[in-house]
């Protein structure tokens, strides 16, 4: 069959089950767009290429699928780098197609040419430059396998214009065999048996779960494990929703802005079971005094995460779902004894920490940002999909919205990329059209990709934006407030648009609350509207996120208000 | 912890950009490359990179794991701690004034290397050997005066069981 590269691309995408592509056209991809128009694949036109990747990322996280984007060469490709880096840090399966100048012009400083593969090499799981149309089908299939297997991650495919325009005699590629890429899914049974013994012996155990649990779709197995063994659970930012936030065993988030009881538990536990985590610096604080009394079990599909930051007693390389499932089966055969009696002392200690320093705020005359998130949680019954921007807004969303299910908290954790929330919300809404999707933002972050409001309106997506408007780049200001004698260098956003008028300019609904008693009515009106809404909450200006572990300090030494 | 020198023998897909990927991995993560030598093997689809790195043991472990993670890396062998043979080649351009010529030729003879180029004032010597031999000959030639030197870096293979 004679097909052009562009036609081959459409054929293979359909075979991979792709029904949505986020993109922005340009000269280098005009042939591809022409073919795309003839298919029934839904194309979402973003307004800046980074948002194509952020949207594909949000789509992938909410829908549990591979997100796909298509952008042009040169500036189109370079604009995607931030989005790709964010997906890379959070291990999200996204395939990014970039156009490229024709092969005979590569390396010639041609119009809209950049070395895309060179630029994205360090921030992709893998990338390809397709030199011949004959290779295109195989490469696309390989890319989908690589992006979605093992530890997922973004894969970029750079397609020169002549490769997409060229006609060849199409032969379907053989079954994809990546000779040296063989992630380990099944864990070593002997290691699991050691874990079982350690659980039996432990008096103060702790489960620390993260993004890997979500990616592996292992929330059910994790919940079963924790309840079966009565081990308290904490999660990293990326793991929120992997364990029910309303369960009595839940300790709250761990780390720099984690709860008091969660961080203190790390200091006293004698066994820490890390599941799908990478012991990142936001979590560990000072690494040489992290979990000093604990034996550490580390379950992860990526061997490079294990023993990278902290010493591990029992490493278990494997997929979280498969590993926890096997572990649960082994535990079923064991007599764990009177767990209530065994855990009483540990639970009492944790309860003491909870009551000495509960997560609170003091709502008086000025709207407290935590109050807004609290009300958001109550009004949505904890069932909305929440995306966030970055900074204080992100931390308050993580602290005050209690996620009971996975794939409902979508945030740029590893890269911490402002401007992520709105396009990610768009992607999430497309993946889950029946759900309420809310972007919790700051007045700084929301302006980074505000132009995506048009994307939302064009697609008729009723996403809701909740702006915690404090007139500052809050998180940096907090650091300046606490550690730099309140020298607020470049963090004052005294000049900002009227967000209500801006919403209306975009064709959305704009709402504002300036007093505490207005919060609930504005949220009710905004959240239950069928339209795209921006809600501007004018909040306490110098509110800080607490607890806070100062950089370089042990996690057990927190600033509490 | 002590810095250890490790010789890594890495089999990779023989494709454009793979070397750049490996080098980028090392530079991006702050790993050290002391020397690197790469060429095709008898399988035209596979190249071998022989790379010498130094680092503390946990870093060496991370390096191996990170290399294994790369899609284009077929196999990683840490040769250090195993029985292996290694050689390095150097071309050394020595200043050969009249009073030094005899001495230089004596050294060349003792080390069983070759003079492969002669000019009025210089000899270019080709020497192949292990790390010890290279160090020794350079120490002897340095006082005489080395104008230029080009080294390949180590190549190595595991010794097969006898």
Summarize the structure.
With 561 residues, chain A is an alpha/beta fold. Chain A is globular, with a radius of gyration of 24 Å.
Q: How many strands in all of chain B?
A: 9
Point out poorly predicted stretches of chain A. none
**Based on DSSP secondary structure assignment, what is the total number of beta strands of chain A?**
20
Report the end-to-end length of chain B measured between terminal Cα atoms.
Answer: 35 Å
- Tally of helical segments of chain B: 4
Percent of residues in beta strands of chain A: 15-25%
Strand order of the largest sheet of chain A: 3-2-4-5-7-6
Protein structure class of chain A: alpha/beta
Helix proportion of residues of chain A, in percent? 25-40%
Uncertain ranges of chain B: none
Series of secondary-structure elements of chain B, N-terminal to C-terminal:
EHEEHEEHEEHEE
Mean pLDDT of chain A: 97
Q: Could you give the distance between the termini of chain A? A: 69 Å
Folded structure, characterized:
The complex is a heterodimer of chains A (561) and B (162). Chain A is of the alpha/beta class and 561 residues long. Chain A contains 21 helices and 20 strands. In chain A, strands 3-2-4-5-7-6 form a six-stranded parallel sheet, with helices on both faces. Chain A has a six-stranded parallel sheet with strand order 11-10-9-12-13-14, with helices on both faces. In chain A, strands 16-15-17-18-20-19 form a six-stranded parallel sheet, sandwiched between helices. In chain A, strand 6 (126-129), helix 6 (133-148) and strand 7 form a beta-alpha-beta unit. Chain B is of the alpha+beta class and 162 residues long. Chain B has four helices and nine strands, in the order βαββαββαββαββ. Chain B has helices at 18-28, 57-69, 98-110, 131-141, and strands spanning 4-13, 35-40, 46-55, 73-78, 84-95, 114-118, 122-129, 146-151, 155-158. In chain B, strand 2 (35-40) and strand 3 (46-55) form a beta hairpin. The mean pLDDT of chain B is 95.
């Amino acid at each position: 069959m004679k097909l052009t590269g562009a036609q081959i691309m459409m054929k293979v995408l359909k075979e991979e089950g792709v029904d949505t592509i986020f993109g922005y056209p340009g000269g280098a991809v005009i042939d591809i767009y022409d073919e795309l128009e003839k298919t029934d694949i839904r194309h979402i036109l973003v307004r800046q290429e980074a948002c194509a990747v952020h949207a594909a990322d949000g789509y992938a996280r909410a829908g549990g699928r591979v997100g796909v984007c298509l952008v042009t060469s040169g500036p189109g490709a370079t604009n995607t780098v931030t989005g790709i880096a964010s997906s890379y840090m959070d291990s999200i399966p996204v395939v990014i197609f970039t156009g490229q100048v024709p092969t005979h012009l590569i390396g010639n400083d041609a119009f809209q040419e950049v070395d895309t593969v060179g630029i994205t090499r360090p921030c992709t799981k893998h990338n390809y430059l397709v030199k011949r149309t004959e290779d295109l089908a195989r490469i696309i299939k390989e890319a989908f396998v690589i992006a979605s297997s093992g530890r997922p991650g973004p894969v970029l495919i750079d397609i020169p214009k002549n490769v997409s325009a060229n006609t060849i005699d199409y032969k379907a590629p053989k079954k994809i065999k990546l000779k040296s890429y063989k992630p380990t899914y099944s864990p070593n049974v002997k290691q699991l048996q050691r874990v079982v013994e350690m659980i039996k012996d432990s008096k103060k155990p702790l489960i620390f779960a993260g993004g890997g649990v979500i990616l592996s779709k292992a929330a059910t197995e994790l919940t079963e494990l924790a309840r079966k063994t009565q081990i308290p659970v904490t999660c990293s930012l990326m793991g929120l929703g992997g364990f029910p936030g309303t369960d009595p065993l839940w300790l709250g988030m761990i780390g720099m802005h984690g709860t008091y009881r969660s961080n203190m538990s790390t200091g006293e536990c004698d066994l820490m079971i890390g599941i799908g985590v990478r012991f990142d610096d936001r979590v560990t604080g000072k690494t040489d005094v992290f979990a000093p009394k604990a034996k550490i079990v580390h379950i992860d599909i990526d061997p490079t995460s294990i023993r990278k930051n902290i010493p591990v007693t029992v490493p278990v390389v494997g997929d979280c779902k498969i590993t926890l499932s096997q572990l649960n089966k082994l535990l079923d055969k064991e007599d764990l004894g009177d767990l209530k009696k065994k855990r009483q002392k540990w639970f009492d200690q944790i309860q003491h920490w909870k009551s000495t320093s509960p997560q609170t705020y003091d709502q008086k005359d000025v709207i407290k940002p935590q109050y807004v998130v609290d009300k958001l949680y109550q009004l949505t019954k904890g069932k909305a999909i929440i995306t966030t921007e970055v900074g204080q807004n992100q931390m308050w969303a993580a602290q005050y919205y209690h996620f009971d299910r996975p794939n409902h908290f979508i945030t740029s954790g590893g890269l911490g990329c402002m401007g992520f929330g709105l396009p990610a919300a768009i992607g999430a809404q497309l993946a889950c059209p029946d759900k309420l999707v809310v972007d919790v933002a700051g007045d700084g972050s929301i302006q980074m990709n505000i132009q995506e409001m048009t994307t939302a309106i064009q697609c008729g997506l009723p996403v809701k934006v909740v702006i915690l408007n404090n007139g500052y780049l809050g998180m940096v200001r907090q650091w300046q407030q606490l550690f730099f004698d309140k020298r607020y260098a470049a963090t004052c956003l005294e000049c900002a648009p009227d967000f209500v008028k801006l919403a209306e300019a975009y064709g959305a609904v704009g709402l504002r609350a300036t007093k505490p008693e207005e919060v609930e009515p504005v949220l009710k009106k905004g959240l239950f509207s069928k339209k795209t809404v921006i809600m501007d909450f004018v909040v306490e200006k110098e509110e800080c996120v607490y607890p806070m572990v100062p950089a370089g300090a042990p996690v057990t030494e927190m600033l509490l208000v | 912890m002590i810095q250890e020198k490790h010789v890594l023998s890495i089999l990779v897909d023989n494709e454009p950009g793979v070397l750049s990927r490996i080098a980028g991995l090392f530079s991006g993560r702050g790993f050290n490359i002391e020397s690197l030598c790469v060429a095709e093997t008898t399988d035209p689809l596979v190249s071998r990179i022989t790379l010498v790195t130094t680092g503390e043991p946990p870093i060496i472990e991370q390096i191996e794991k990170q290399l294994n993670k790369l899609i284009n890396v077929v196999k990683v062998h840490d040769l250090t701690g195993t029985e292996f043979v290694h050689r390095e080649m150097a071309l050394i351009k020595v200043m050969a004034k009249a009073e030094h010529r005899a001495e230089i030729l004596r050294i060349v003879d003792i080390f069983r290397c070759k003079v492969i180029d002669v000019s009025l004032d210089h000899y270019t010597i080709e020497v192949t050997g292990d790390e010890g031999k290279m160090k020794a000959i350079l120490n002897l030639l340095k006082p005489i005066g080395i104008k230029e030197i080009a080294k390949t870096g180590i190549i190595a293979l595991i010794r097969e069981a006898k």
